[in-house]
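Quick check before the chapter quiz. The format below is the same one you will see on the exam, so make sure you can read both the input and the output lines.
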Amino acid sequence: MKRSARLTLIAIVLFLGGSGLVYEYCLSTLASHLLGNSVEQFSLIIALMMFAMGVAGLAQRLITTNERLIDRFIEVEIALGLLGGSSTLLLYLSYSYMEHFHFVLYLLASAIGFGIGLEIPLLLRINQFWRGELKDNVGDIFSLDYIGSLVGALVWSFVLLPLLSLERISLILGIVNLLAASGSLAIFWKLAQRKKTYISALLGSLAALIALSLVSPGLISDARQHLYRDPIRFHEKSAYQDMVVTGSGERLSLYLNGHLQFDSEDEYIYHEMLVHPAVLSLDHPIQDALVLGGGDGLAVRELLKWPSLKRVVLVDLDPAVTNLASHYKPMIDQNGGAFLDDRVRIADASASTLPAGDRTVYKIPERPTEALTDPAEAIATVQLLHLDADVYVANIAEYGDRFDVIIADFPDPSSSDVAKLYSLEFYLAAKRYLREGGVIVVQSSSPYSNRTSFWITRNTLAEAGFKTLSLHAHVPTFGEWGWHLGRIDRAPAPKGAIPFETRYISEDVIAASAVFPKPLAKPEGLTSISTRLDPQVMHAYLRGEPLDGERHYPRSAKR
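Here is the expected output.
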């Protein structure tokens, strides 16, 4: 084989090693965004693709004619480029329009895995013509394949994922896959037996992927709108999640990764219950509060109604959410301009200049690109921090900052990434932030459709040393919903009148919300707690509660 041809083949093998891995990542990541529980989706899809690769290794033995190996390899690459390149777009469309979405997901994963599994055996057999020694042949192909996998993983983490959408990544990858097939055809031109057919197939497949890339924005936009009842008024994909705002007239709804975060028709019920019972449980007027999550500004809006409040610190991972809440007028109207208040100053989280006497906060990188530039970034003292709440409570407490109220307004514990925020370790760390007589409140999902998970959260707070009070209310768009309050010295006891007008809450409402009828009460004998090593709250949440007939209360509101 000529040197130029051999170098081309080396490049193709390196690309195939990386592209197979990136195809797996694309499907797994999209499935995680659509279905939640990233650990489960990555585990299932990658395992299924690996299984299909194993089946392909056995199937390649059916190709008994060595003269047709080149043809089979080119055919596999054309099919893989076309299917892999369109896979994420097909998956999203099927999620939007088809009832049996999981069938399409697992079928795509299996088909792509089967194609990837055929590549290496065919390359080994082709390379045997020039590298007769088995040890040299295996060393060539497998070393290049594994090196390509490393390169693919790095390019995925640091280049593709931060810069491009998933459907763009797969379409570009598919086009490059077709170029690899073209390179293979050029290298083995004399050995290929169906040259005209392959040229036509390559040109047709390339045209199809290019056309798909041109029409994909419109297809995705239509499919996205199909998922929502009201017209989409705003859409943005951040580094962490897909944000959609829908609404007609004055009604507004915010969805993150397809899960409802609030509806303007009734969010006041949720947020008044989240904030005011905790404030009323203090023995003194509230001075400052820590809000973990709640980047929409609605919990902050309720806190700012208390005239004695002097400071709010809000910690939310995604700056795109707080930016939306700060600059998108319908959101500003909804949160009352909460982030424009003098007591809630939005500052640059990358600032390194500290006022005299203030503390330094170190932000551990949340994204791979940050780790390359600065593994531990100093952040100025700010009222709004864009970092994981878990990182915040683990790294700031030593500086002695204390709050009267801590509000944990997190998504439901549907994945291990979120379940850590409902763990014993998290509550033990957060406890150090409370002043004497301070109160923590945790949104805890539904005591009806997620009854066991709800009470495991209460058990975990109690294990961390909190005396607790549990509350519930009916939020029409969420269903039956609940919260847990915790205090170190004694159980929280909301008392006194609220010194401003509210839309839902009152002394009588709070008293009634502490009464749990039998279907909502703590199951007898439930003693489980949730830890990082054993996230019982997640397991219980994903199981849900067995119901007879149709489930009337949605489980996906805050997920």
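If your answer matched, good. The first strand starts at residue 232 and ends at 237.
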